[in-house]
Fold Protein unc-93-like A.
Amino acid sequence: MYVTALIGYAFPENPEAAFVNLRMFEALGCSVAYLYSNSVCVYVKLMVGGLLHVSFVLVIVVEVT
């Protein structure tokens, strides 16, 4: 929900292309996570998830300031 608002704010000149890219990368992320889910241990999955959360927070901090 917050990502779509951030995308709409960051790309007001061409929001359709921005939202299409957002959905494409969401689907790509789900596909990659599904493909490596059985071959990677839980610790690595938690590390990747933690890094994604930290990067999302940093994007919000950069956009707000």
Observations:
- Residues 15 and 21 are 10 Å apart (CA to CA).
- Residues 1-64 form one domain.
- The longest helix spans residues 42-64.
